Amino acid sequence: MTENDDFHKSEQSATQRNDSFQIATNLFLSFKYAGEGVGYAFRTQRNFRIHLIIGAIALSLSLYFKLSAVACSIISLTIALVLVLELLNTALEAVVDLTVGREFHQLAKIAKDCAAGAVLIAAIAALIIASALLLPYILDTLI
User: Fold this and answer.
1) Which of 87, 91, 95, 126 could, after both became Cys, cross-link 78 (CB 3.0–4.6 A)?
2) Which of 3, 86, 93, 103 is catalytic?
3) What is the dihedral of CA 48, 50, 51, 52, to 10 degrees?
4) Can you tell me the distance from the alpha carbon of 39 to that of 47, in angstroms, rounded to the nearest whole number?
5) For this structure, is 93 an active site residue?
6) Is the pTM of this model over 0.70?
């Protein structure tokens, strides 16, 4: 088989891909697929919704107390980090479930637990950072 034949075969198989393995043919589709991923996480992942709500509260408080642009940026970045890790955790769980199926496997448990642990550590760090930046303003308001 020649190199040209290999190219044509791979080109034919690329046109026969099913829905689970589509390639975005333009920038709009790339954003559409990314939005579908975020939408899926929002609809199905309770922790994603919790992180999103807490993040919105932290950002709202930042704007209400007129924190500096740097402080707002730091809070925004920590919120984004938690949400990104939550999305990666969801993706990893889906891949592990696809690979292992309904059977228990110790390595699958380790992978899922470590991914969830990464989200937990990021969420704790985000909480500490937001508290350090917002707590003085909150306490001044209450006292």
Assistant:
1) 126
2) 86
3) 80
4) 13
5) no
6) yes
